[in-house]
C-alpha cells in the first residue's frame, strides 16, 4: 500500500474560535497517530480536516491514497441488511471480495442478514469498522472508534488496526479510551 498523510502548520477555527494551530505530523506506510485531549479541544475537527470535510484555517494537508472515516455516525443505510449496506461501500471501491473478510474480522458474519437498524450500539460500531475495512482505503481516520465497544471488541479493534498497519496502511485515532497502538506518534491538543 502506498499511503501518506501529513499536516504542516495546520490551524483550525470553528464558530470563529481558534481551536488549534501549528499542528504538524507526517505519517507513512505502517504509521499511526494517537490524538488526545479534553472534550471540545478539536480532536474530531482534526479528523474532519484530515478527511477533507473541513478546510484548515491555515497550513497544508497532504494525502496520498484513499481515506476511510469512522466518525459518530456509521454511514450505513439503516434499512438495509448489514451485508447489503457493507456491499454498497465495498462495491464503490470495486472490492466486493473484502466484504466477507470484513464481516468476519469484526465478528458480525452471523448478523449479515440483520437490518443495520436492529444492531446494538457496540455492533453498530463494529459495523462501521467493517465498512472501513471493506473500503480498502489505506488511510484510516477513526474518531472515538472504541465508543460502545466491550473489552473483547477493543482488543479486536487493536488487532484490526495492527494488521492494517502491517499491510502498509495508516491510522489516525482520536480517543479518550486507552487503545494500544504500538509505536504510534502521539498528539495532545
Ligand atoms: N459546525 C460547528 N460550528 C461551530 N463550532 C463547532 C462546530 N462543530 C464543532 N464546533 C465546536 O468546535 C469545538 C471542538 O469540537 P470537536 O468535536 O472537534 O472537539 P473534540 O475534541 O472532538 O471533543 P470531544 O472530546 O467532546 O469529542 C467545540 O467547542 C465545538 O462546539
TrEMBL record:
UniProt cross-references to Pfam families, sorted A to Z: ABC_tran
Cited Gene3D superfamilies: P-loop containing nucleotide triphosphate hydrolases
Keyword Cell membrane: no
Domain ABC transporter positions: 5-187
InterPro entries from the UniProt entry: AAA+_ATPase, ABC_transporter-like_ATP-bd, ABC_transptr_haem_export_CcmA, P-loop_NTPase
Entry keyword annotation includes Transport: yes
Single GO term (MF): transmembrane transporter activity
GO biological process terms, semicolon-separated: cytochrome complex assembly
Protein name in the entry: Heme exporter protein A
Keywords: ATP-binding, Cytochrome c-type biogenesis, Membrane, Nucleotide-binding, Translocase, Transport
Amino acid at each position: 500500500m502506498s499511503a501518506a498523510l501529513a499536516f504542516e502548520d495546520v490551524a483550525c477555527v470553528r464558530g470563529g474560535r481558534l481551536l488549534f494551530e501549528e499542528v504538524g505530523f507526517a505519517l507513512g506506510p505502517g504509521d499511526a497517530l494517537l490524538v488526545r485531549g479534553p472534550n471540545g479541544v478539536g480532536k474530531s475537527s482534526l479528523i474532519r480536516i484530515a478527511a477533507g470535510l473541513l478546510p484548515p484555517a491555515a497550513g497544508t494537508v497532504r494525502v496520498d491514497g484513499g481515506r476511510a472515516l469512522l466518525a459518530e455516525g456509521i454511514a450505513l443505510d439503516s434499512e438495509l441488511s448489514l451485508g447489503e449496506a457493507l456491499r454498497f461501500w465495498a462495491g464503490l471501491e470495486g472490492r466486493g471480495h473484502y466484504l466477507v473478510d470484513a464481516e468476519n474480522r469484526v465478528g458480525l458474519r452471523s448478523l449479515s442478514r440483520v437490518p443495520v437498524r436492529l444492531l446494538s450500539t457496540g455492533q453498530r460500531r463494529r459495523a462501521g469498522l467493517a465498512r472501513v475495512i471493506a473500503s480498502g482505503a489505506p488511510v484510516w481516520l477513526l474518531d472515538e472508534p472504541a465508543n460502545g465497544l466491550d473489552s473483547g471488541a477493543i482488543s479486536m479493534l487493536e488487532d484490526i488496526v495492527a494488521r492494517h498497519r502491517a499491510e502498509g496502511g495508516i491510522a489516525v485515532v482520536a480517543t479518550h479510551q486507552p487503545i494500544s497502538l504500538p509505536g504510534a506518534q502521539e498528539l495532545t491538543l
